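The protein record quoted in full:

***
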Amino acid sequence: MTAMPGLGTPQLASPDLLRSVFRRHAAGVAVITARGEGGPVGFTATSLTSVSAEPPMLSFGIGTGASSWPAVSSAEHVGVHLLGEHQQDLAATFARSGADRFGAATAWREGPEGVPVLDDVLAWLVCRVAARVPAGDHRIVLAEVVLGDPTGPGRPLLYHQGQFNGLRD
């Protein structure tokens, strides 16, 4: 491919191209939780999106190879937690494969509908799973908000260039 003035050199679609582009996209950081057969499960997500105000609905993506997928694939309800900039370690724990995500370092409790709810987050929601839509090697989970709390203190945690960062003014 040849360079295009003002656009650089285009690359053909590939997983690496998509990853490279989205490393440049700053995204809010959430942790999604669910009750699994063997206990609570959860993972860090930057794919959280507001879908509808009426009814209140959101979506997130999860890989079908993720350790949390078996629980999320059958869960009736999930927890959605927006992390604060003070929670970089928590975000990293829930992003790391094989980590003890609900170990002693993670403050949480069983919330409504048996969903694990993390302490000290900016905001949390309990949602009823409405659909799981196939999307390549992932599923897009559509979930309707049941209840939540938007009043946690602090500023949002962001993910950019492969790192967790605080919001700068």
Summary: The domain at 18-124+131-158 is CATH 2.30.110.10 (Pnp Oxidase; Chain A). DSSP finds three helices and twelve strands in the chain. The two ends are 39 Å apart (CA to CA).
